[in-house]
Every structure is written in structure tokens, then in C-alpha cells.
Write a structure and sequence with these properties.
Elements: H1 2-65, E1 69-74, E2 85-90, E3 97-98, H2 104-121, E4 126-130, H3 138-150, E5 156-160, H4 164-168, E6 173-180, E7 183-189, H5 197-205
Parallel strand pairs: 4-5
Antiparallel strand pairs: 1-2, 2-3, 6-7
Helix pairs in contact: 1-2, 1-3
Main location: cytoplasm
Pfam family, one: SMC_N
Domain RecF/RecN/SMC N-terminal: 88-184
């Protein structure tokens, strides 16, 4: 009798453990299906986003540089979720090269082109740019200002700058001055409130 009781107890434990094992396998299978679905959606979302950003990046690069070529390349196209990304650029009149080999101004424009490409793909109401034009000459600063104005139908930009050409492209300018030690003062101004030199000369002549 004791042997039968022990057998019954062991069979009961085995049945309970088998049920737990089956539940765990079912849960693992269900979780794997969820993971596979998420990975599939992530791959599609990433691939679609990369394609859109890549197109915008190439377009904006040409606008900012006045020509040239640039691209975003996956290091491992067989595994997009784990792959790194390489950015290549060829400014006008130069050879194709990695981003690390570009000059300071070229790196700035390339980075801005990539930033704005991502921004164009998923715009927000406003964007803050802090001295992105610091390493740019006058011609490149003018191109940057022109590209930013192309975005004004969908976003506003707050740009921190010391460049006069960038300031001249703004609709509203806030100057920060320190007339007294430790005390900053804001000076707002709209350029349309100031007549240009030609209008000023005509008014003076009249």
C-alpha cells in the first residue's frame, strides 16, 4: 500500500510538473511569436525610415554644398537592426570620403544635412540650433539660411548664432547684451521694422 501511495504521489507531482512545463513552452512560443512580429515591424519601420531619410539627406547635402554627393550606408544589410551606419560624403570637386576625413565646415554641413533630413521625415513644431554655423564661411552660411527657410512651412527655428548673415535671414532677432556685469539684457527686433538702405536713401532724398 505504501508503494502504491508513493506511486500516486509521484505521478501527481509528475503531472503537475508536466503541466507547468507545457505552460512554459506555450508561453515561450507565444513570446517568440511576439518578438518575431516586433522585429519584423521594426525592420520595416527602420528600412522605410532609412530610405526616406537617405533621400532627404542626399537632396539637402546637394543644397547645402551647392552640389556633390552623399549617402547613408548600412554596414551589414543582412541584419538591419544590429547593423551600424556609415555616412560618406563627396563635396563638389573632391573625392568620396568618410565623414572623419572632412574639414570642420564640411563636417558641420554634412551633420546639418543629416539632422534636417531626419527632421523633415518627422518634423516637430520647432527646432533649436545652437551655433551650427560657427565653422561656416559666408557662402555656406547663406546656403544654410536658405535651407532653413525652406522648412518654415512646417516648423519654426530658434537659432543661436554670432553670424550676421544668419541674423539677417531671421524674422525675429533677440540680441543678448551685458551692459552691466552679471546682468544680461534681451533686445528684440524685427528686420521688417527697419527700412533697407535703398528705402532709407529715397526717404532722405524726399
Amino acid at each position: 500500500m505504501e508503494a502504491l501511495d508513493e506511486l500516486t504521489r509521484v505521478e501527481g507531482e509528475f503531472t503537475a510538473l508536466q503541466a507547468q512545463h507545457d505552460d512554459l513552452n506555450a508561453a515561450r512560443h507565444s513570446l517568440q511569436q511576439v518578438i518575431d512580429a516586433i522585429n519584423a515591424d521594426s525592420r520595416k519601420l527602420f528600412t522605410d525610415t532609412l530610405a526616406a531619410v537617405r533621400t532627404y539627406f542626399q537632396e539637402l547635402f546637394r543644397k547645402l554644398f551647392g552640389g556633390g554627393q552623399a549617402d547613408i550606408v548600412l554596414e551589414d544589410a543582412t541584419d538591419v537592426l544590429e547593423s551600424g551606419i556609415e555616412i560618406t560624403a563627396r563635396p563638389p570637386g573632391k573625392e568620396l570620403r568618410a565623414l572623419s576625413l572632412l574639414s570642420g565646415g564640411e563636417k558641420t554641413l554634412t551633420a546639418v544635412a543629416l539632422l534636417l533630413a531626419i527632421f523633415r521625415n518627422k518634423p516637430s513644431p520647432f527646432c533649436i540650433l545652437d551655433e551650427v554655423d560657427a565653422a561656416l564661411d559666408e557662402a555656406n552660411t547663406a546656403r544654410l539660411a536658405g535651407v532653413l527657410r525652406d522648412f518654415l512651412d512646417r516648423s519654426q527655428f530658434i537659432v543661436v548664432t554670432h553670424k550676421k548673415r544668419t541674423m539677417a535671414a531671421a524674422d525675429l532677432l533677440w540680441g543678448v547684451t551685458m551692459q552691466e556685469s552679471g546682468i544680461s539684457r534681451l533686445l528684440p527686433m524685427r528686420f521688417e521694422d527697419w527700412p533697407d538702405e535703398e528705402q532709407h536713401s529715397e526717404a532722405a532724398a524726399a
